[in-house]
TrEMBL record:
Lineage: Bacteria, Pseudomonadati, Bacteroidota, Cytophagia, Cytophagales
Ranges that cross the membrane: 13-34, 54-72, 78-97, 149-180, 187-204, 210-228, 235-256, 331-350, 362-389, 395-416
Domain of life where this protein originates: Bacteria
Topological type in the membrane: Multi-pass membrane protein
A Pfam family recorded for this sequence: FTSW_RODA_SPOVE
PANTHER family: CELL CYCLE PROTEIN (PTHR30474), PEPTIDOGLYCAN GLYCOSYLTRANSFERASE MRDB (PTHR30474:SF1)
InterPro entries attached to this UniProt entry: Cell_cycle_FtsW-rel_CS (IPR018365), FtsW/RodA (IPR001182), RodA/MrdB (IPR011923)
The keyword Cell wall biogenesis/degradation is annotated on this UniProt entry: yes
Example GO biological process: regulation of cell shape
Listed name of the protein: Cell wall polymerase
Organism annotation: Dyadobacter chenhuakuii
Gene that encodes the chain: rodA
Main subcellular location of this protein, as a coarse class: membrane
Amino acid sequence: MAENKPITKNVDWMVVLIYIACLGIGWVNIYAAVYNPEVNMSMFDLGNNAGKQLMWIGTAAVLIICILVIDYKFYETFSFIIYAVIVFLLIVVLFAGSNINGSRSWIKFGAFSLQPAEFSKLAISLAISKYLSDPAISLTRKLKDYYPIMGIIALPAFLILLSNETGSMLVFASFAIVLYREGMPGFIPAIGMVTAALLIITLLFVKWYIAAVIIVIAGLAIWLMPVMTRRRGGLWATIIIAFVMIGIVFGVDFFMNNVLQKHQRGRIMVLLDPDSDPRGIGWNVIQSKIAIGSGGFSGKGFLQGTQTKFDFVPEQSTDFIFCTVGEEHGFIGSAVVVVLFVSLIARLVVLAERQRSRFARVYGYCVAGIIFFHFMVNVGMTIGLMPVIGIPLPFFSYGGSSLWSFSILLFVFLKIDAQRPFTLSRG
């Protein structure tokens, strides 16, 4: 039988210390990003983003205490209810939400705003974990067991897409990591990666050349294929795969022109050719790379970044906070941030693997996967390796909704993990 313990009993302090380090470094860099040398700005002034972020950090600390006080069984028991509440809020913002930066996904409370889309990651993580905690569910043997998971992810994804918050929706791709760990065949994520690769290759090269290469590779595969494999369907499987790949290649134009919006097409084209729109969509990435590159090995020094000081990089305290680190603290500072995130993600995977219940393990992988996706894409887009999709760097970027959602996501797992020694395994 589970036993209640003091709220800090068995909490993983390595994760807590990394969390505190990220908050501290992030807060300092938010101040650097908004610092104006002509104004006597204080880090504690609520009139700037640094002061507001400190307030959000304080409120996050209160939320963390509440999470640790609540019985760990609450999060599993009420998983679907939490999911339903967040879905309801996502519907509310479509009709009563405020439009900020072209996205109708905010609920305003006076001078402050809350973005339910940020909390959808928590809701989906809990719902998927609860669903997969059923021992009868098998992602290895039963195709029908995928349908509820697809529904759990698709509903909030659709609502978020309607509110024009595409970046938050794309984060849901991180759940593929969880499903793969729980038995999803490897060919399914492989299909996604091959499709993405074909999209990029098609935009760079002539379609007929790509189709010819696919046909040649398929022909070689059939020629080298053992006779028994051909007779067992290998021949037709190879032909079908080749035709599907060719179909994807020739369907790229339709996807780019009829599915993606103009700014989304522009971001992809800028990723392939940063100089294609240097004063438009490509401006952020170009200036971000200049800022990071100018930092050199040890950086220009705290509050000494010229790209930062003169506002060359828009959204520098939010989505592009990493370029502030690169410019003012150089390779050393950037490496510290990368090491912190790699250490955090690795530790979360270790904690997830030691869980005694499937619910806890799945939820732990959800947390690790979401943080990994945000880290990979956010840092990647500041150095020109990923398209700009507008997602924050966890614990670093300015924003109350982002900080709250990541803090809750992380500390719910730490609460569940803290009770592991007192919890019997349930499969």
